[in-house]
Amino acid sequence: MTATGVISAILIGAIIGVLGRLVLPGRQSIPIWLTVVIGIAAALIGTFFARQLGLADTEGVDWTEILIQIVLAAAGVGVTAAIMSGRSSTRV
């Protein structure tokens, strides 16, 4: 992977993470940097799943792949927010 590929993955992952966070109702009490990290992971995992299903290489925009990535990011943000809110409520 080239430097341009890494930068693109980070930017797309950040966007996917923010979109995943926006899909969830309510407020998520996790830092934005963690949302970006979750988005990057969701983008990579979503691309892997889309390729396995034969959905990643289409003409034009790969809307199905993007949808998979956003769903994974929303799930990741939701789980992380739940874990972090559980931790913060047990601290005294």
Which labels suit this protein?
mainly alpha; 92 residues; 76% helix; 0% strand; globular
Overview of this structure, please?
The protein has about 90 residues and is an all-alpha fold. It has one domain (about 5-90). Helix content is about 75%, strand content about 0%. The protein contains 3 helices and no strands. Helix 1 crosses helix 3 (about 65-90). The longest helix is centred in the C-terminal third of the chain and has 28 residues, at about 65-90. It is globular, with a radius of gyration of 14 Å.
Tell me briefly what this model is.
The protein is an all-alpha fold. It contains three helices and no strands. The N and C termini lie far apart (45 Å).
